[in-house]
Amino acid sequence: MATAAPLLSFTEMATSLSELHQAHAHMLKTGLTNDTFASSRLITMAAALPHTEAIAYAHSIFARTPDPNSYMWNTMIRAYANSPTPDHSVVLFHQMLYGPVPPDKFTFTFGLKACSSLRGIEEGKQIHAHLLKIGIGHDAFIQNTLIHLYAITGCTAIARNLLDRMLDSDVISWNAILSAYTEMGLMNLALSLFDEMPDRNSESWNFMISGYVGIGLIEEAIAIFDQMPTKNVVSYNAIITGYMRKHQFSQIFLLFEDMQSKNVKPDNCTLVNILTACAHTGALSQGEWIHTYIEKNGLCISGYLATALVDMYSKCGCIEKALKVFNNCSKKDISTWNSMISGLSIHGYGQEALTLFAEMTNDGSSKPNEVTFISILSACSRSNLLNEGRKFFDLMINVYEIKPTIEHYGCMVDLLGRAGMLEEAEKLVIKMPLKESPLLWESLLSACRNYGNMKLGERVAGTLLKLDPGDSAVYVQLSNMYAYMGRWKDVMDVRRKMRNRQVVKEPGCSMIEVNGVVHEFLAGEGLIC
Fold it and tell me: Taking each helix axis from N to C terminus, what angle separates 140-152 and 171-184, rounded to the nearest 10 degrees?
């Protein structure tokens, strides 16, 4: 095993599937795959990678292992229980139950967790019965998992009965029910249980905060947050997420300042959310401060953190800095590539965006997804690359087999509209269901105004007003079209209709950063925050 030590060390440090492939190849070459310990480490590392392909790869190694031990079985059952396909965990659990390797208490815990993810109460009851039969049903760890299973599947009376009958129940046991209530959004039940709890830990408080945030009750979440004896980074992240969903970016910055004053160290989740808020508000100086903080603390700029930095610099007008972050990023995932392509698109660098797309596909580490094509089609639209846009739309459908969404059609309608291909754009919009198409019709109406096509413009406006008679933007666009053509009587008719139908044009809103503080303005009003 001495000669195997460096290889096993390399395996345990692997952070990508390609590195694990290298380690596996060496193991096959040296015969190390016949060693149970070495194979178990390879399976463990593959199952732990945050890639959908990784767990399938781990399973393929497991399936080819002659006599997998209980650790290997548990690793795979646990991995699937935590994956988007927990049903595979139940299948493996069943195979192990009737195989030569007996399950232990960890096996049952992972199997029950899979049942919770599936909301599989019948399967869970069968496992519970088997536990009682073999005499380990009273293990505290197993009972806590059972309590959560019954609570999350709506069997709250059984869950509470199990809790009340536990001889050594603790805060974890209470949290098992509390987490189920908050996950299901049953916050009245959660609050009642929370008030009844003999002891609470930070998880108890965080479950309550996250539960309220999850159903959009940010004020209630803040009330719990303010009462919390000792706040941690998870507590702050939950509230920041709530503010993010409400687009209350100024509150996010205040909360981050509070974190700093309380010496609560932000994690990657915090930093990504703050950078996203900076991108939305154009708060460049605050975004740069976060970037400096990341570098000073030696944090690895990759994955979502790299994506957030690229997005922030792009949306704050610093495309050169965005490119610098992107080029210095050691490991780019698809979100990082998408963010950079989108950034180039926003700044009008259409050809450069296409070049980056080609670079990504040649690199082979990331496969284009729906978001990639939205970014690349937007780049074609903004740079008037009509033929290239058509080519990429065809590539998306026929090569990558991605079904176009409303966003993809929107990019194509905008591209065709800018190029003056209004009839072709109309044919594309007609293909979409009416409920999904208002934004496409609005884009086409804007193109009709730009090209002075009144006949098509009136037809499009009529369609939009049938869908939403109160849409002020349609009246304004139609009025502007008539004004551009000098048809002042029609302008007055449109405005009269707006008054009669009590349609009010929504005021524009702007945000600006001054000395590190973000201010918001409404058209015709003063400073509002």
Answer: 20
